[in-house]
Design brief:
The protein has 185 residues and is of the alpha+beta class. It is built from five helices and six strands, in the order H-H-H-E-E-H-E-E-H-E-E.
């Protein structure tokens, strides 16, 4: 069991301004702004990676995070806002947060979409007061200009995550340890 020292708490709090300073452009302009960004993100995803339309068509719902900003210098964090769509309609708004520690430096931004492939997975997500991405999620990370593998679009994983539109100077993106919380924009 680890104990937090005063220095550790101070350093953790010191990382928060790094993430806050990297505004993700969504701000607090309400649901219309988030929905507009979600629409643009989905349009980019489906045009750049056409096989993802198969995931959309098979899914019970999609959580779309148009822009997540992640920063780290020893300690790090990430933040973004998005919307849960069921049947093509926004039903809730969510924020995503992540904290990390270790050998890391840099800042990056990316978009991601979680495809809930079963009604149970979607129901569990919606009922949770704060849902953490974990081992039951399969990643489908499209490569530049390519398409997703056939096994991804036919997968029976309850949740499939597609991470794309990466920009910045930080290597790698994983959604493990990311927490999603329902918000009122």
């Amino acid at each position: 069991m680890t104990q937090l020292s005063r220095r550790g708490v101070i350093l953790s709090l010191g990382a928060l301004p790094l993430v806050a300073a990297c505004g993700n452009g969504i701000g607090s302009k309400g649901p219309e702004t988030i929905d507009a960004r979600v629409d643009a993100t989905l349009a980019q995803l489906f045009s750049q990676y056409p096989n993802t339309t198969q995931l959309r068509d098979k899914s019970a719902g999609m959580l779309v995070m148009p822009l997540v900003t992640e920063a780290g210098l020893g300690l790090g964090g990430a933040y973004g806002k998005g919307a849960l769509r069921v049947g093509g309609v926004t039903v809730d708004f969510y924020s995503t947060t992540k904290a990390s520690a270790g050998l890391q430096i840099g800042v990056q931004q990316y978009a991601h979409v979680l495809f809930f492939m079963t009604e149970d997975a979607l129901l569990n997500f919606r009922r949770a007061p704060g849902w953490a991405a974990g081992a039951d999620m399969e990643y489908a990370i499209p490569e530049g200009g390519g398409s997703l593998a056939a096994e991804t679009t036919t997968s029976m994983a309850p949740v499939i995550a597609v991470v794309f539109a990466q920009a910045g100077l930080r290597a790698g993106v994983t959604l493990e340890g990311v927490k999603y919380t329902r918000i009122i924009p």
